[in-house]
Design goal:
By secondary structure, this protein is an alpha+beta fold. It contains 6 helices and 9 strands. It has one domain: L,D-transpeptidase catalytic domain-like (Beta Barrel).
């Protein structure tokens, strides 16, 4: 992409996000109440480490719908861009108040989703495929891969079986630059977004307990939860988080 195209994409992102209105920190967040995200600074910071303006725009819009539904207010946003190959860092954790990137990590997809390139996605149990769309993070627990983070899918038909499928974030030894160099790709999970063990605990502790995670791929419509009513139903109408889930 040329410098002109990148600049134009950033301008379009800023203009689009301005229509959403300012994002505010929650009363429980470290920043003071009423702090606003500097969209221009965030867009530039994210693009410098590979997060495309289009994907950031969709992720922020999805988070805005979740916040409007009263399901999340913490000013952190996690974005996964599954259009990138697995050997590239394609997960970002964004601080929306200070307009900065807190983490940029490798993340594996499900073995049914593809090899290095993610191609197939599913909400179906047993598919061994990753799910797309908008999630809210839950509590943590210790499983066979160590610390793991529960995820609640908010998009009916797209990811709302995430809990039933035990889709959680966790560390895994098959996620590292060394594995990517040897295989030409990362190892693959049973559908979970698996991280490098060296980064997993830090990322999980950053985003646990009620932040938004947005997983993107251009093959599906992942504009986010379609309405606050639907998102509220998806979050409050299901069963409570299970005490134990088995991560892949």
């Amino acid at each position: 992409m040329s410098q002109y195209s990148r600049g134009r994409a950033t301008v379009l992102l800023v203009a689009s996000l301005a229509a959403i209105g300012p994002l505010r920190a929650s009363p429980t967040a470290l920043p003071a109440r009423g702090a606003r995200v500097d969209v221009t600074v965030l867009a530039h910071a994210a693009e410098r480490v590979g997060l495309r303006p289009k994907v950031l725009r969709l992720a922020l819009r999805a988070r805005d719908r979740v916040v409007a539904g009263g399901l999340s207010a913490r000013p952190l946003l996690t974005v996964i861009d599954y259009s990138l190959p697995s050997h590239e860092r394609r997960l970002w954790v964004l601080d929306l108040v200070h307009a900065r990137v807190l983490a940029h990590e490798l993340v594996a997809h499900g073995r049914g989703t593809g090899d290095d390139q993610a191609r197939r996605f599913s909400n179906r149990p047993g598919s061994l495929q990753s799910s797309l769309g908008t999630f809210v993070t839950g509590s943590v627990y210790h499983g066979k891969h160590g610390l793991a983070l529960r995820l609640r899918g908010l998009d009916p038909g797209l990811n709302d079986r995430a809990e039933a499928r035990a889709i959680v974030m966790h560390g895994a030894p098959y996620v590292s630059e060394a594995v990517a160099a040897k295989l030409g790709r990362l190892g693959r999970s049973q559908g979970c977004p698996a991280l490098n063990p060296a980064a997993a605990a830090r990322v999980i502790e950053l985003i646990r307990d009620g932040t938004v995670l947005f997983a993107y791929h251009p093959s599906r419509d992942v504009r986010g939860v379609t309405s606050s009513a639907e998102s509220a139903g998806a979050l409050t109408g299901g069963r409570p988080y299970a005490r134990r889930q088995r991560p892949s």
